[in-house]
Amino acid sequence: MFTKRQLRILELIIRNSYGITGSRMAEVLSVSSRTIRSDIVVINTILKEYDFMIKSSSKKGYYIDNEKYQDMCSFIRPYLSESLDDKNRMYAIVGRVLFDGKQYFLDLSEELDLSEQTLYKVCQKIKNYFVRQYNFNYFVIKSEYIDINCKEEEVRQLLLQLTIELIMSKRSDYLIQIELLLNDNFFDNEYQKILNIIKEKAESIYMVIEGQSLDMIALAFYMMIVRNRSQFYIENPISNKAAYSFVDLLIEELSNCDFEINENDGLLLNDFCWGIKMSCANDQINISSQCYEVLSEFCQKVADRFHVYFLESTETIQYLSTHIEYMIRRIETKYELKNPIIYEIKKMYPVSYEIAIVLSDVIYKHVKCYPNDDELSYITLYIENFLHNYNRKLRVVIVSEARPGLNYMIESWLKNNFSYRMNFYGFVTLHDLDTFIKNNHIDIVISSRRITQSMKIPYYVIEGIPNKRDFELLTSLVHRISDNNQFEEIVKELFSPEIIQYFNHNEDFNDVILQLSKQLYQNGYIENVEDFSQRVIKRETLYSTVINSKIALPHPLINKEKKSGVAVGILKNPISLNNKDVKLVFLLAFNKEDDIEMCYLLDFIRRISLNKENSIELTSSNNSKQFLQKIVYLSKNIQ
Predict the structure, then answer these.
(1) Helix axes 595-609, 612-619, angle to 10 degrees
(2) Cβ neighbours of residue 388 under 8 Å, at least 6 residues apart?
């Protein structure tokens, strides 16, 4: 009788008893307003035979007269039940249980046009699905009914998780599925009002919220309101995150508009919004030091294993740091993103996905929980973009041999092991090598025999069949060429003789931090000595920054200083920090705009710490000028 789209139109009109505009239905169903009008004409032609009619007005949109509403619902409902696909049927059943409690299969079978035996099997699948996807094991299934046994807070957390999945699915009809989950308690005019209130409040305080994020926040607030209105309330909710003032502002605004929402709802919404990207216009996202440490370690592991260097692209580092920051937040609050095209991504970009998996162990090391596959698939897209657009490969030429087989063997080995780090410019004879280098920009020369002439660029000799030792040495050379120029620039930019200080007495950690903070203040790096030093000390009590037995690099959790710089403390007598004797302190002061510089510096200091001779050499400096010369030398030659 009705097409699938016409049934969806009828469902939208029935669920919005106060009326819904044609443009809104067109948006939900991803069609034109003209298509909606044409379908309404056809629907009314059919309904006329049964003495029903969809009316319209410029104020209300499309609606059904109050006196006909219940009869119309009874007439249409069997057709809507027939049109439900498996997914929508699942949401319809879950919605009934969440709002009406125990549901007997006998009653559901009549409404959903399924046998009781089939419904039992469907409900078992529903239970298994929610255990697998959301670790939600609170559905109770007996031979005659399905019920739920959990706290209201757990119900709302599930609804919020489903909100993320449905919005991220990018299905045009996701609001219909939301309506099913809310068990006919969704009214589009109310939702649009809430959406507009949130949008206007964000604009009034110059808050930037992206499209999908705005939908998530609006639906999250609406779900709290619907649950409260249905007499379900949260008791003693717990939030481990700092309160969002924006959430408090919205609760106050919505309460003033007679929406039923309160402070207890705010605690749950606070956790939800913690993982959603929101920022004031022209203001950068606050990235935690934990995120920088995760990113630095991830970049290093990827460089070591795949010879891919994210630090070469400021844009990639910014994208990764922002996503990883919010990913960690979502992992902590259990509101991780879903990706509807995850399988396509893994199929199309297997190498980038393999690189993204490296992040999994790094995240677990820092937060004791693995990210889900969907979150990693978003990281995969950033990596693929980097590999396609930014990964500058070293230009390589191979000195040819008279033996073609050896040429082919060396080229194949290089391509198999260094394809992401090298572009091969073919072969050149030893006689023509100098001329070729003068006419072409080459980073490395590979040869199977020693080159006796003077070379101004690095070269590597593979003697015989390439082996593991060749791989290790050539990898080290690639690292050095790619990194050392950046390290040298960072060291010269961030280190200064004025903020290098020697400590010759028995100072403790707090004394050292206070004195170095004063040096930073006097040279214009920080705003306030007491505030900065206390933030550094507080961070150290939470997460130790000692990276080996002699070196520590303390810094605040949040980077917000006037300008970036590194104060150095060289101690005659070591201080005890995290049960280790520290003789060299790098106190980091960073402006939030210098994310990539901080990543480079963390990587550089980590490499210094790998060799005890480096720290011994630095601490043996007699004065700040000599220290600076030594650390600049290390930046050029660190392995």
Answers:
(1) 100
(2) none
